[in-house]
Design brief:
Helix content is 45%, strand content 14%. It has 278 residues and is of the alpha/beta class. It has 2 domains: 99 residues, 3-Layer(aba) Sandwich (Rossmann fold); 148 residues, Rossmann fold, CATH 3.40.50. Strands 2-1-3-4 form a 4-stranded parallel beta sheet, with helices on both faces. A 4-stranded parallel beta sheet has the order 6-5-7-8, sandwiched between helices. Helix 2 packs parallel to helix 3 and helix 5 runs antiparallel to helix 6.
């Protein structure tokens, strides 16, 4: 059965958080935007009993759905994988797709240990990520500049241009110490960088955003205010583009791209030597 008009159930099955299964699965499903998908996450399938319950859940959905469910699985245990494979679903097993070919190419068996990616398999790496998250929170929104000398990058831009979520993503995903500093209208009208930022010019990275997008975001925060008016947004976005050009600050337009793309672009353009994430 292949009814494109009906919603297609999708299961993400994992022995740990399911983040890897969801990321890989979503990356593939975005190529099929004509189809509607109904997402189900089944994390922590780390026992035979849980695997059988997950299989029953998948089969119940299969019985009532017009389309066969898709299952993206990152399960490692062979018994658990066989139980899920027995369901009335189309199975995309990332273990079969990636681990087995790697074992053959590297001429050595994998550890087949569960939860290594999102567990605390490397205490030093894990703690560095936690330290980076604390740094991002402590140095958010220009609250303090005393620790800027320890920053890997300092994001600057107008209010609501995406600085905070990008800093947190850089910390959580890459273990980078990212601070951010909002440039106010008075900062921008001066036409040069605030004094607090000048010693850290080589760490600065700018976010720009188009005025209409900025207006929409600000409206959700302060509806019908001067802060969110189109005229104010146009003024600030014009001034900040001029400032970045004058000061030769690396920058990227955050209007229509994801935080993942922003973060990766920052690392690439700034040539940041990020720490390992595993």
């Amino acid at each position: 059965m292949n009814n494109h008009a009906a919603v297609r159930p999708v299961f993400f099955v994992s022995d740990r958080t399911g983040i890897t299964a969801e990321n890989l699965g979503h990356a593939l499903l975005t190529q099929f935007n004509a189809i509607k998908f109904e997402h189900h996450s089944l994390p922590f399938i780390d026992s035979e009993e849980k695997a059988r319950e997950a299989a029953r859940t998948i089969n119940r959905v299969a019985e009532t759905s017009e389309n066969q469910p898709l299952v993206f699985s990152t399960l490692i245990d062979d018994v658990h994988r066989r139980i899920i494979a027995s369901t009335h679903a189309h199975i995309i097993d990332f273990f079969d797709a990636f681990i087995k070919p790697l074992e053959e190419e590297l001429h050595t068996p994998s550890s087949r240990a569960e939860g290594l990616l999102h567990g605390i398999s490397n205490e030093v790496v894990y703690m560095s990520r936690m330290d980076a998250i604390n740094f991002a929170l402590k140095n958010d929104d220009g609250a303090s500049t005393r620790e800027y000398k320890h920053a890997d990058v300092i994001l600057i831009g107008v209010s609501r241009s995406g600085k905070t979520p990008t800093c947190l993503y850089l910390a959580m995903q890459f273990g980078l110490c990212a601070a951010n500093y909002p440039l106010t209208e008075s900062d921008l009208e001066k036409g040069f960088l605030p004094e607090a930022l000048q010693p850290y010019r080589d760490k600065l990275f700018g976010l720009v955003i188009n005025a209409e997008r900025l207006r929409m975001i600000r409206e959700m925060r302060r509806k019908n205010s001067e802060y969110s008016s189109l005229a104010q947004c146009q003024k600030e976005t014009r001034l900040i583009r001029s400032l970045f050009e004058q000061e030769k600050i690396h920058n990227i337009d955050s209007s229509q791209i994801s935080v993942e793309e922003i973060a990766t672009s920052i690392i690439q353009l700034m040539k940041i030597n990020r720490p390992p994430i595993y």
